[in-house]
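Q: Give me the 3D complex with flavin mononucleotide.
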Amino acid sequence: MPSLFDPVTLGAFDVANRIVMAPLTRARANREAVPNALMAEYYAQRASAGLIISEATGISREGLGWPNAPGLWNDQQVAGWAIVTDAVHKAGGRIVAQLWHMGRLVHPDLGGGQPVSASATTAPDFAHTYEGKKPYVEARAATRDDIARIIGDYAAAARNAIAAGFDGVQIHGANGYLVDQFLRDSANQRSDEYGGSIENRIRFASEVIEAVGDAIGMQRVGIRFSPNVFTQGVEDSDPIALFTALARRLEGLQVPWIELREAHAPTLAGAIPTEPVSPAMRPLYSGRIALNSDYDGPSATARMAEGIADAISFGRPFIANPDLVDRIRLGAELNTGDSATYYSGGAAGYIDYPTLEDREAA
Ligand SMILES: Cc1cc2nc3c(=O)[nH]c(=O)nc-3n(C[C@H](O)[C@H](O)[C@H](O)COP(=O)(O)O)c2cc1C
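A: Here is the predicted complex, encoded as structure tokens.
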């Protein structure tokens, strides 16, 4: 059984170890969604991860509803990201861009109009805006023209990611955002070929994957799902049936790797996970599977030994431990992150977490 420290091939590229940095929104870009040198420093500090998955990155103004999150729809954003990818590569790392359309979770203050989703639904709770939290507004159901346009936006953003120097992309299919709004039946009430049956609900995700694969080569494409937990109002009545059908489709499309945020314990928001789907997906999908959520070094090592995961991704541990790979290797204690600075902007709580070396020097 491979260990966390064995290299692995993820489609077009090899990674040096199987400790993946999970996508983490940190809200340090400017209002035009342009990344900067501070972000380059943060990511370069974490370049010993086998693979960095970038924070979720908007494919269009319409699809980006998080204050100070970055985008990939124009040249300024490509230039900003090029600083980041260059710094990561110089530090010996690999980085892919997580491509994001938030669907009904985009507040009009940020997206510029009524949000679009699979169906005319309203997300629960509150949107983050530059003026604080506001209730979500009802989305309109995407027309076929909207769907074609949005798929084109994914492809264009993927091309921009490659132009910016990313090693590939990860399509964000998790956490209740647009792809997930089409996939899972609590948010998809359509009666056309994009809704109803499982076959129809996986159509949007499949078409996005195909378009992105056509744009940059399927060997550079990955996708993330959160199959077994209720997130931002999105869940499914039969996750095993849905995600096994999806596993067969991913196999057919030859997607080289996927990441599953598969919760085992109640989430911070209080959602209770259903049965894990990765055991049912594994025999149907021969690509690489990264598993996520709530791992530390010992539990990740134990999970790798079960033979389902090819890699483990770590979110919060990477926020607080730029040298997480060394710490896991040495069995060292981990720093604890400060959630007050997750989205606060600025350098504090972003690039100032100490490494083991810093601690020794102090
Ligand atoms: C501050 C923060 C930002 C996050 N941003 C994203 C994101 O941009 N895209 C995404 O798919 N998941 C995002 N997540 C979820 C993480 O990728 C990960 O699934 C979650 O933190 C659980 O993994 P962990 O227990 O290793 O932290 C975020 C989580 C946190 C705490």
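A quick observation: The first strand starts at residue 8 and ends at 10.
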